């Protein structure tokens, strides 16, 4: 496998995993407040996956010799760095430091990967990535409704029996198909 092909595969893997991790808690099978008391819980597995994504990102940046420009862009956006620093610093005064560590890893990982995507792809490429991500979520919602009807329904009051798809409520992605069609 050539270096360019390996770099492209790692980059695709980074994009897919980062988009999944950034949206994991919004999906039906995700948990809005994952358990952080157990090291084998979804929170720490997700954190470990963020570390894998960031290692892959660092490898891609090193392979493309663009690490220097990436760091320079972070220096130019000093206020964002301050915001991330405060998110990490909040661990110190947190009532539940484990939860704060988990959330800080998520914010840091999403910010670092988001900055890379913003630098790597032009606006049209970014919209194409988000379009296909939206298409996959819509397809998953339909498949969930067809294959596991109970899995795509709200089973609690006041919407007992209403459809929710893979992203929670049906209205979450109501604007996605028209927006996705416009962006393609």
Give an overview of the whole structure.
The protein is an all-alpha fold. It folds into 2 domains: 1-120; 123-184. It is 66% helix and 0% strand. It contains 7 helices and no strands. It has helices at residues 3-23, 42-63, 67-76, 78-89, 97-120, 123-147, 176-183. Helix 1 packs across helix 5 (97-120) and helix 6 runs antiparallel to helix 7. The longest helix is centred in the C-terminal third of the chain and has 25 residues, at 123-147. It is globular, with a radius of gyration of 19 Å. Mean pLDDT is 78; it is low at 173-184.
* Unreliable segments of 5+ consecutive residues: 173-184
Domains (count):
2
Output the helix-strand order.
HHHHHHH
Q: How much helix, percentage-wise, in residues?
A: 55-70%
The tally of helices reads: 7
Q: Tell me, briefly, the overall form.
A: globular
Strand content: under 5%
- What is the radius of gyration computed over CA atoms, rounded to a whole number of angstroms? 19 Å
**Class by alpha and beta content:** mainly alpha
Biggest pleated sheet: none
How far the N terminus sits from the C terminus, by CA atoms, comes to 31 Å
Overall pLDDT score: 78
Number of strands: 0
């Amino acid at each position: 496998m050539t270096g360019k092909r390996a770099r492209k595969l790692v980059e695709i893997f980074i994009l897919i995993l980062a988009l999944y991790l950034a949206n994991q808690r919004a999906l039906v099978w995700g948990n809005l407040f994952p358990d952080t008391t157990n090291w084998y819980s979804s929170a720490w597995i997700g954190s470990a996956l963020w570390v894998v994504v960031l290692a892959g990102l660092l490898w891609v940046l090193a392979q493309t010799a663009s690490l220097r420009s990436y760091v320079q862009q972070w220096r130019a956006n000093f206020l964002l760095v301050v915001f991330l620093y405060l998110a990490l610093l909040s661990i110190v005064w947190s009532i539940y430091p484990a939860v704060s560590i988990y959330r800080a890893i998520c914010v840091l990982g999403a910010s670092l990967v988001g900055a890379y995507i913003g630098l790597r792809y032009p606006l049209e490429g970014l919209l194409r990535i988000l379009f296909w991500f939206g298409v996959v979520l819509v397809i998953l919602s339909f498949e969930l409704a067809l294959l596991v009807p109970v899995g795509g329904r709200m089973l609690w009051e006041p919407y007992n029996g209403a459809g929710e798809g893979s992203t929670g409520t049906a209205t979450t992605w109501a604007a996605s198909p028209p927006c996705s069609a416009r962006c393609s």
